[in-house]
Automatic annotation (TrEMBL):
Protein name, as recorded: Adenosine deaminase
Known catalytic reactions: adenosine + H2O + H(+) = inosine + NH4(+); 2'-deoxyadenosine + H2O + H(+) = 2'-deoxyinosine + NH4(+)
Required cofactor(s): Zn(2+)
Organism listed in the record: Alosa alosa (allis shad)
High-level lineage: Eukaryota, Metazoa, Chordata, Craniata, Vertebrata
Family: Belongs to the metallo-dependent hydrolases superfamily. Adenosine and AMP deaminases family.
Length: 365
Protein backbone atom coordinates (compact mmCIF):
# COMPACT_ATOMS: atom_id res chain seq x y z
CA UNK A 1 0.00 0.00 0.00
CA UNK A 2 2.79 2.33 -0.91
CA UNK A 3 0.44 5.13 -1.88
CA UNK A 4 -0.81 5.33 1.68
CA UNK A 5 2.53 4.97 3.40
CA UNK A 6 5.07 7.67 3.62
CA UNK A 7 7.23 6.11 6.29
CA UNK A 8 9.42 4.45 3.68
CA UNK A 9 11.17 7.78 3.18
CA UNK A 10 11.72 10.93 5.16
CA UNK A 11 8.55 12.97 5.53
CA UNK A 12 8.59 16.67 4.70
CA UNK A 13 7.58 17.40 8.29
CA UNK A 14 8.65 14.35 10.22
CA UNK A 15 6.95 15.24 13.50
CA UNK A 16 3.51 14.57 15.03
CA UNK A 17 0.76 16.25 13.03
CA UNK A 18 -2.88 17.19 13.50
CA UNK A 19 -5.38 16.70 10.68
CA UNK A 20 -8.85 18.20 10.93
CA UNK A 21 -10.43 17.86 7.49
CA UNK A 22 -10.52 14.45 5.86
CA UNK A 23 -13.48 12.43 4.63
CA UNK A 24 -13.64 8.77 5.64
CA UNK A 25 -15.37 7.84 2.39
CA UNK A 26 -12.72 9.76 0.44
CA UNK A 27 -9.88 7.97 2.20
CA UNK A 28 -10.63 4.30 1.53
CA UNK A 29 -7.84 2.03 0.27
CA UNK A 30 -8.18 0.84 -3.32
CA UNK A 31 -7.17 -2.67 -2.20
CA UNK A 32 -10.01 -2.69 0.29
CA UNK A 33 -12.58 -1.72 -2.34
CA UNK A 34 -11.42 -4.60 -4.56
CA UNK A 35 -11.34 -7.01 -1.65
CA UNK A 36 -14.81 -6.13 -0.34
CA UNK A 37 -16.29 -6.23 -3.84
CA UNK A 38 -14.94 -9.77 -4.22
CA UNK A 39 -16.26 -10.85 -0.82
CA UNK A 40 -19.70 -9.42 -1.51
CA UNK A 41 -19.87 -10.68 -5.08
CA UNK A 42 -20.18 -7.14 -6.44
CA UNK A 43 -18.76 -6.86 -9.93
CA UNK A 44 -16.61 -3.85 -10.71
CA UNK A 45 -15.58 -2.82 -14.23
CA UNK A 46 -11.91 -3.38 -13.28
CA UNK A 47 -10.03 -5.84 -11.07
CA UNK A 48 -6.58 -4.38 -10.43
CA UNK A 49 -5.44 -1.62 -8.10
CA UNK A 50 -3.95 0.35 -10.99
CA UNK A 51 -7.13 0.19 -13.07
CA UNK A 52 -9.31 1.06 -10.07
CA UNK A 53 -7.03 3.98 -9.31
CA UNK A 54 -7.51 5.29 -12.84
CA UNK A 55 -11.26 5.03 -12.34
CA UNK A 56 -11.47 6.61 -8.87
CA UNK A 57 -8.94 9.42 -8.98
CA UNK A 58 -8.67 12.82 -10.63
CA UNK A 59 -5.24 13.92 -11.76
CA UNK A 60 -6.05 17.30 -13.26
CA UNK A 61 -8.50 20.02 -12.18
CA UNK A 62 -12.01 18.61 -12.49
CA UNK A 63 -15.55 19.91 -12.32
CA UNK A 64 -17.75 19.25 -9.28
CA UNK A 65 -19.76 16.75 -11.33
CA UNK A 66 -16.63 14.83 -12.33
CA UNK A 67 -15.42 14.86 -8.73
CA UNK A 68 -18.72 13.64 -7.28
CA UNK A 69 -18.92 10.99 -10.01
CA UNK A 70 -15.84 9.32 -8.49
CA UNK A 71 -17.82 8.33 -5.39
CA UNK A 72 -20.29 6.50 -7.66
CA UNK A 73 -17.48 4.19 -8.73
CA UNK A 74 -16.99 2.59 -5.31
CA UNK A 75 -19.40 3.74 -2.58
CA UNK A 76 -21.91 0.98 -3.37
CA UNK A 77 -19.20 -1.56 -2.52
CA UNK A 78 -18.65 -0.28 1.02
CA UNK A 79 -22.07 1.13 1.96
CA UNK A 80 -24.51 -1.27 3.58
CA UNK A 81 -21.83 -3.74 4.72
CA UNK A 82 -21.06 -3.95 8.45
CA UNK A 83 -17.62 -5.49 8.13
CA UNK A 84 -16.57 -3.09 5.39
CA UNK A 85 -17.67 0.03 7.29
CA UNK A 86 -15.79 -1.03 10.40
CA UNK A 87 -12.79 -2.03 8.32
CA UNK A 88 -12.43 1.29 6.48
CA UNK A 89 -12.53 3.15 9.82
CA UNK A 90 -9.88 0.86 11.32
CA UNK A 91 -7.63 1.04 8.26
CA UNK A 92 -8.04 4.80 8.14
CA UNK A 93 -6.45 5.09 11.59
CA UNK A 94 -3.58 2.87 10.48
CA UNK A 95 -2.96 5.05 7.43
CA UNK A 96 -2.94 8.21 9.53
CA UNK A 97 -0.59 6.66 12.10
CA UNK A 98 1.83 5.83 9.27
CA UNK A 99 1.57 9.42 8.03
CA UNK A 100 2.72 10.66 11.43
CA UNK A 101 -0.64 12.04 12.52
CA UNK A 102 -1.06 12.21 16.31
CA UNK A 103 -4.65 13.40 16.25
CA UNK A 104 -7.22 13.27 13.46
CA UNK A 105 -10.83 14.34 13.10
CA UNK A 106 -12.40 12.27 10.33
CA UNK A 107 -15.77 13.15 8.82
CA UNK A 108 -18.48 11.32 6.92
CA UNK A 109 -22.19 11.28 6.20
CA UNK A 110 -23.76 8.37 8.13
CA UNK A 111 -26.62 8.37 5.61
CA UNK A 112 -24.32 7.77 2.65
CA UNK A 113 -23.03 4.52 4.19
CA UNK A 114 -26.48 3.22 5.24
CA UNK A 115 -29.01 1.12 3.34
CA UNK A 116 -31.99 1.47 5.68
CA UNK A 117 -33.73 4.37 7.44
CA UNK A 118 -32.46 6.74 4.77
CA UNK A 119 -34.51 8.35 2.04
CA UNK A 120 -33.53 7.95 -0.75
CA UNK A 121 -31.33 4.88 -0.28
CA UNK A 122 -27.96 6.00 -1.71
CA UNK A 123 -25.80 4.47 -4.47
CA UNK A 124 -28.69 2.46 -5.97
CA UNK A 125 -28.43 -0.11 -3.16
CA UNK A 126 -31.29 -2.47 -2.44
CA UNK A 127 -32.81 -1.84 0.97
CA UNK A 128 -31.09 -3.62 3.86
CA UNK A 129 -31.00 -3.18 7.63
CA UNK A 130 -28.06 -0.84 8.29
CA UNK A 131 -29.35 2.50 9.50
CA UNK A 132 -27.34 5.75 9.82
CA UNK A 133 -27.34 5.13 13.58
CA UNK A 134 -25.68 1.74 13.14
CA UNK A 135 -23.19 3.23 10.67
CA UNK A 136 -22.03 5.63 13.40
CA UNK A 137 -21.66 2.75 15.87
CA UNK A 138 -19.64 0.71 13.35
CA UNK A 139 -17.34 3.62 12.51
CA UNK A 140 -16.87 4.34 16.22
CA UNK A 141 -15.86 0.71 16.79
CA UNK A 142 -13.40 0.77 13.88
CA UNK A 143 -11.86 4.05 14.99
CA UNK A 144 -11.52 3.07 18.61
CA UNK A 145 -9.96 -0.30 17.74
CA UNK A 146 -7.61 1.65 15.43
CA UNK A 147 -6.67 4.00 18.27
CA UNK A 148 -5.66 1.05 20.43
CA UNK A 149 -3.83 -0.78 17.65
CA UNK A 150 -1.97 2.18 16.17
CA UNK A 151 -1.58 4.43 19.21
CA UNK A 152 -2.99 7.67 17.87
CA UNK A 153 -6.15 9.60 18.68
CA UNK A 154 -9.09 9.68 16.25
CA UNK A 155 -12.41 11.49 16.62
CA UNK A 156 -15.24 11.92 14.14
CA UNK A 157 -17.45 14.63 12.66
CA UNK A 158 -20.85 13.81 11.17
CA UNK A 159 -21.75 15.50 7.89
CA UNK A 160 -25.02 16.98 6.76
CA UNK A 161 -25.32 17.12 2.96
CA UNK A 162 -26.38 20.38 1.33
CA UNK A 163 -28.75 18.69 -1.12
CA UNK A 164 -30.41 16.60 1.64
CA UNK A 165 -31.71 19.01 4.32
CA UNK A 166 -34.18 16.34 5.47
CA UNK A 167 -31.25 14.31 6.87
CA UNK A 168 -29.79 17.13 8.96
CA UNK A 169 -31.89 16.77 12.12
CA UNK A 170 -30.94 13.06 12.19
CA UNK A 171 -27.30 14.08 11.93
CA UNK A 172 -27.42 16.44 14.91
CA UNK A 173 -29.33 13.83 16.95
CA UNK A 174 -26.58 11.30 16.17
CA UNK A 175 -23.96 13.86 17.23
CA UNK A 176 -25.78 14.21 20.56
CA UNK A 177 -26.25 10.47 21.02
CA UNK A 178 -22.61 9.61 20.33
CA UNK A 179 -20.87 12.65 21.80
CA UNK A 180 -19.29 10.48 24.48
CA UNK A 181 -18.27 7.87 21.96
CA UNK A 182 -15.90 9.80 19.72
CA UNK A 183 -18.24 12.09 17.76
CA UNK A 184 -17.07 15.67 18.31
CA UNK A 185 -18.89 17.89 15.79
CA UNK A 186 -21.31 18.47 12.95
CA UNK A 187 -20.36 19.50 9.39
CA UNK A 188 -22.19 20.60 6.27
CA UNK A 189 -20.78 19.33 2.96
CA UNK A 190 -21.79 19.28 -0.68
CA UNK A 191 -22.78 21.77 -3.34
CA UNK A 192 -22.31 25.29 -1.96
CA UNK A 193 -24.70 26.83 -4.46
CA UNK A 194 -27.53 25.39 -2.33
CA UNK A 195 -27.76 28.05 0.35
CA UNK A 196 -29.34 27.59 3.75
CA UNK A 197 -32.08 30.12 3.22
CA UNK A 198 -33.57 27.83 0.61
CA UNK A 199 -32.83 24.73 2.73
CA UNK A 200 -33.84 25.57 6.32
CA UNK A 201 -33.28 21.99 7.55
CA UNK A 202 -29.58 22.69 8.00
CA UNK A 203 -30.18 25.85 9.97
CA UNK A 204 -32.49 24.02 12.37
CA UNK A 205 -29.91 21.29 12.87
CA UNK A 206 -27.16 23.82 13.56
CA UNK A 207 -29.38 25.72 16.00
CA UNK A 208 -29.88 22.47 17.87
CA UNK A 209 -26.10 21.90 17.79
CA UNK A 210 -25.49 25.34 19.32
CA UNK A 211 -28.13 24.68 21.98
CA UNK A 212 -26.58 21.35 22.94
CA UNK A 213 -22.94 22.44 22.78
CA UNK A 214 -22.09 20.35 19.70
CA UNK A 215 -19.10 21.81 17.83
CA UNK A 216 -19.66 23.10 14.30
CA UNK A 217 -17.68 23.31 11.07
CA UNK A 218 -19.03 24.08 7.59
CA UNK A 219 -17.63 23.59 4.07
CA UNK A 220 -17.76 27.16 2.74
CA UNK A 221 -15.88 29.39 0.31
CA UNK A 222 -14.24 26.37 -1.30
CA UNK A 223 -15.69 26.99 -4.74
CA UNK A 224 -18.50 29.18 -3.46
CA UNK A 225 -18.35 32.97 -2.93
CA UNK A 226 -17.61 34.75 0.39
CA UNK A 227 -21.36 35.01 1.05
CA UNK A 228 -21.40 31.26 1.78
CA UNK A 229 -18.70 31.79 4.40
CA UNK A 230 -20.66 34.66 5.88
CA UNK A 231 -23.73 32.48 6.11
CA UNK A 232 -21.69 29.69 7.74
CA UNK A 233 -20.44 32.07 10.41
CA UNK A 234 -23.50 34.26 10.96
CA UNK A 235 -26.36 31.79 10.44
CA UNK A 236 -24.86 28.39 11.20
CA UNK A 237 -22.46 29.66 13.89
CA UNK A 238 -19.52 27.74 12.45
CA UNK A 239 -16.46 27.61 14.70
CA UNK A 240 -14.21 26.51 11.84
CA UNK A 241 -14.45 26.89 8.07
CA UNK A 242 -13.81 23.99 5.72
CA UNK A 243 -11.53 25.48 3.02
CA UNK A 244 -12.70 29.12 3.04
CA UNK A 245 -10.37 30.14 0.19
CA UNK A 246 -12.76 32.63 -1.37
CA UNK A 247 -13.15 34.53 1.92
CA UNK A 248 -10.23 36.71 0.78
CA UNK A 249 -12.46 38.21 -1.94
CA UNK A 250 -14.47 40.04 0.73
CA UNK A 251 -11.98 42.15 2.64
CA UNK A 252 -14.42 43.17 5.38
CA UNK A 253 -15.40 39.59 6.09
CA UNK A 254 -11.81 38.38 5.83
CA UNK A 255 -10.55 41.02 8.30
CA UNK A 256 -13.37 40.16 10.68
CA UNK A 257 -12.54 36.45 10.58
CA UNK A 258 -8.83 37.22 11.10
CA UNK A 259 -9.75 39.29 14.16
CA UNK A 260 -11.95 36.47 15.44
CA UNK A 261 -9.12 33.92 14.97
CA UNK A 262 -11.34 31.84 12.71
CA UNK A 263 -9.69 28.56 11.78
CA UNK A 264 -9.50 27.60 8.09
CA UNK A 265 -9.21 23.92 7.24
CA UNK A 266 -6.97 24.24 4.18
CA UNK A 267 -6.54 21.36 1.70
CA UNK A 268 -4.01 22.46 -0.98
CA UNK A 269 -3.94 19.44 -3.34
CA UNK A 270 -7.71 19.10 -3.10
CA UNK A 271 -8.18 22.79 -3.91
CA UNK A 272 -6.19 22.41 -7.12
CA UNK A 273 -7.88 19.21 -8.32
CA UNK A 274 -11.43 20.36 -7.57
CA UNK A 275 -10.77 23.58 -9.47
CA UNK A 276 -11.49 25.57 -6.28
CA UNK A 277 -8.27 27.58 -6.64
CA UNK A 278 -5.81 28.66 -9.30
CA UNK A 279 -3.69 25.57 -10.10
CA UNK A 280 -0.59 27.77 -9.67
CA UNK A 281 0.16 27.13 -5.99
CA UNK A 282 2.19 30.32 -5.71
CA UNK A 283 -1.13 32.19 -6.13
CA UNK A 284 -3.00 30.08 -3.57
CA UNK A 285 -5.05 31.91 -0.89
CA UNK A 286 -2.95 30.04 1.68
CA UNK A 287 -0.07 32.37 0.75
CA UNK A 288 -2.27 35.25 1.90
CA UNK A 289 -3.42 33.36 5.00
CA UNK A 290 0.21 32.78 5.93
CA UNK A 291 1.22 36.38 5.37
CA UNK A 292 -1.71 37.62 7.47
CA UNK A 293 -1.03 35.07 10.23
CA UNK A 294 -4.48 33.55 9.86
CA UNK A 295 -5.22 30.33 11.73
CA UNK A 296 -5.25 27.25 9.52
CA UNK A 297 -4.40 23.57 9.29
CA UNK A 298 -3.16 21.40 6.41
CA UNK A 299 -5.42 18.55 5.36
CA UNK A 300 -5.91 15.89 2.67
CA UNK A 301 -9.72 16.13 2.26
CA UNK A 302 -10.18 13.07 -0.04
CA UNK A 303 -6.80 11.36 -0.46
CA UNK A 304 -8.29 8.40 -2.35
CA UNK A 305 -9.75 10.62 -5.05
CA UNK A 306 -6.71 12.89 -5.28
CA UNK A 307 -4.27 9.96 -5.13
CA UNK A 308 -2.47 11.87 -2.39
CA UNK A 309 -1.08 11.66 1.11
CA UNK A 310 -0.74 14.19 3.90
CA UNK A 311 2.97 14.37 3.15
CA UNK A 312 2.22 15.46 -0.42
CA UNK A 313 0.29 18.46 0.94
CA UNK A 314 3.20 19.35 3.22
CA UNK A 315 5.64 18.92 0.35
CA UNK A 316 3.49 21.15 -1.88
CA UNK A 317 3.36 24.09 0.51
CA UNK A 318 7.04 23.76 1.32
CA UNK A 319 7.96 23.77 -2.35
CA UNK A 320 5.60 26.45 -3.66
CA UNK A 321 4.77 28.61 -0.65
CA UNK A 322 8.01 28.58 1.30
CA UNK A 323 6.72 26.85 4.43
CA UNK A 324 9.48 26.13 6.93
CA UNK A 325 9.78 23.65 9.79
CA UNK A 326 8.79 26.44 12.20
CA UNK A 327 5.73 27.29 10.07
CA UNK A 328 4.68 23.64 10.24
CA UNK A 329 5.06 23.61 14.02
CA UNK A 330 3.02 26.77 14.47
CA UNK A 331 0.38 25.49 12.07
CA UNK A 332 -0.06 22.18 13.90
CA UNK A 333 -0.21 23.92 17.26
CA UNK A 334 -2.96 26.14 15.85
CA UNK A 335 -4.71 23.03 14.54
CA UNK A 336 -4.59 21.46 18.01
CA UNK A 337 -6.06 24.66 19.48
CA UNK A 338 -8.87 24.54 16.90
CA UNK A 339 -9.56 20.84 17.46
CA UNK A 340 -12.95 19.90 18.89
CA UNK A 341 -11.47 17.97 21.80
CA UNK A 342 -12.58 18.73 25.35
CA UNK A 343 -10.21 21.19 27.07
CA UNK A 344 -8.30 18.61 29.11
CA UNK A 345 -7.61 16.41 26.07
CA UNK A 346 -6.71 19.45 24.00
CA UNK A 347 -4.13 20.39 26.60
CA UNK A 348 -2.68 16.88 26.49
CA UNK A 349 -2.45 17.06 22.70
CA UNK A 350 -0.76 20.46 22.87
CA UNK A 351 1.74 19.14 25.40
CA UNK A 352 2.50 16.20 23.14
CA UNK A 353 3.25 18.62 20.28
CA UNK A 354 5.29 21.04 22.40
CA UNK A 355 7.41 18.17 23.59
CA UNK A 356 7.91 16.68 20.11
CA UNK A 357 8.74 20.12 18.73
CA UNK A 358 11.18 20.89 21.56
CA UNK A 359 9.01 23.76 22.66
CA UNK A 360 8.38 22.60 26.21
CA UNK A 361 9.55 25.88 27.71
CA UNK A 362 7.81 28.17 25.25
CA UNK A 363 4.13 27.45 25.73
CA UNK A 364 3.23 31.13 25.66
CA UNK A 365 2.34 31.19 21.95
ZN1 LIG B 1 -14.20 18.34 2.55
Amino acid sequence: MAEHCTNDRQQTFNKPKVELHVHLDGAIRLETILDVAKQRGISLPVDTVQALKALCTVSRPATLTEFLGKFDEYMHVIAGDRKAIKRIAHEFVETKAKEGVAYVEVRYSPHLLANSGVEPIPWKQTEGDITPDEVVRLVNEGLSKGEKDFKIKARSILCCMRHMPSWSMDVVELCKKYRNDGVVAIDLAGDESLNCEAYPGHQRAYEEAVKCGIHRTVHAGEVGPPSVVKEAVDVLKAERIGHGYHTVEDQTLYRRLLDDNMHFEVCPISSKLTGACDPDFTKHPLVRFKKDKAKYSLNTDDPLIFDSTLDKDYETVKKYMGFTEDDFKTMNINAAHASFLPEKEKKDLLNLLYEAYNMVESTGL
